[in-house]
User: Which sequence fits this backbone?
């Protein structure tokens, strides 16, 4: 059992930005909400899955919609609580604990707020190990765990409940409702048992996000190279150094979609690069050479500060270092690649593990 304090939350927010692969919503907003919840409710308890009773009901919460919209439409805090109450009513069971659906962006922080408001613990597990653009893209889905019932609530506390036999259909229905709710909404979904979490979730990810944040702070304080430090911690590779020359993005179908273009700098001077995204960065390439694809992570770091750059913060002229980070092994299975690999997004290429795409000389 661990009681999260202000410093822990600050570190989780930083780590969540690194693992977000550019998406998941702005963690700064989630951090402020979590800090306010900590001040208002006194404590936020983080438990391991093993500390829960076998019959405990644990539920994920988070946001859905285009990241650009969620950046502009701030929540009031009641949305996810209302969604959780609807799940309880439907199942006729009390929620024992809350967990994040993904360990990236605001969706790593918002469950802290929900747990504090409900007076229940937070569980150190998530269902992606990063952020993904669609709600069926979870390791729970790979393990045949149902996303239903799913409760969706907007800022005006309009509510709807979805019950389907297929998680992909659940995603499509929720996305359609989200569009009618103004482009962003809050969910409670994937009600599971501790055994489900152990078998099909990704354990210890909130603690890992905290460790990443602590590592970055220590590197800054000691003047260490943040990029090299993160690459070592995450088993990552430096893909390229560059400056943003153009950003082409738009909100389509409830997602922020686009391409960001780079001119190479430093050792990559004279080269050009591009990253395709749908809320999250999904494909990085230079000319005709693919450097990294989903489900592996692509993380943009500000060259000067080491701060992760999310898709809604892409701007002309920013100098970046791009890291490729291997995904959790559950995503590297045939089923994982089918659900969240490049083929799903119609990129027309096969998934090849990151470390096979780059040479050892590109490791930081």
Assistant:
């Amino acid at each position: 059992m661990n009681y999260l304090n202000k410093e822990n939350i600050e570190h989780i927010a930083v780590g969540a930005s690194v693992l977000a692969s550019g998406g998941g919503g702005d963690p700064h907003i989630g951090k402020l909400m979590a800090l306010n919840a900590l001040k208002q409710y006194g404590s936020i308890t983080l438990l391991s899955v093993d500390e829960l009773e076998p019959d405990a009901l644990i539920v994920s919460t988070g946001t859905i919609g285009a990241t650009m919209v969620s950046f502009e439409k701030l929540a009031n805090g009641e949305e996810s609580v209302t969604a959780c109450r609807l799940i309880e009513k439907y199942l006729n069971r009390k929620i024992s604990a809350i967990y994040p659906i993904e360990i990236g962006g605001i969706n790593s922080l918002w469950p802290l707020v929900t747990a504090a408001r409900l007076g229940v613990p937070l569980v150190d597990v998530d269902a992606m190990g990063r952020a993904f653009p669609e709600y069926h893209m979870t390791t729970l889905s790979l393990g045949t765990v149902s996303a239903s019932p799913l409760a969706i609530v907007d800022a005006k506390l309009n509510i709807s409940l979805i019950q389907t036999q297929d998680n992909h259909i659940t995603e499509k229905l929720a996305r359609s409702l989200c569009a009618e709710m103004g482009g962003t909404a809050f969910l409670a979904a994937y009600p599971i048992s501790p055994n489900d979490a152990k078998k099909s979730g990704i354990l210890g990810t909130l603690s890992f996000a905290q460790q990443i944040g602590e590592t970055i702070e220590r590197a800054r304080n000691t003047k260490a190279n943040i990029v090299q430090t993160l690459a070592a911690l995450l088993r990552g590779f430096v893909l390229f150094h560059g400056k943003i020359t153009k950003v082409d993005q738009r909100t389509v179908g409830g997602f922020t979609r686009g391409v960001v273009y780079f001119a190479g700098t430093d050792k990559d001077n004279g080269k050009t690069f591009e990253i395709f995204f749908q809320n999250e960065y999904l494909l990085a390439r230079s000319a005709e050479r693919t450097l990294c694809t989903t489900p592996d992570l692509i993380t943009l770091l500000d060259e000067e500060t080491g701060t992760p750059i999310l898709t809604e913060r892409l701007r002309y002229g920013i100098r970046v270092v791009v890291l490729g980070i291997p995904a959790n092994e559950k995503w590297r299975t045939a089923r994982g690649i089918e659900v969240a690999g490049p083929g799903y997004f119609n990129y027309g290429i096969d998934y090849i593990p990151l470390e096979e795409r780059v040479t050892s000389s590109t490791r930081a």
Remarks:
- DSSP finds twelve helices and 17 strands in the chain.
- The two ends are 35 Å apart (CA to CA).
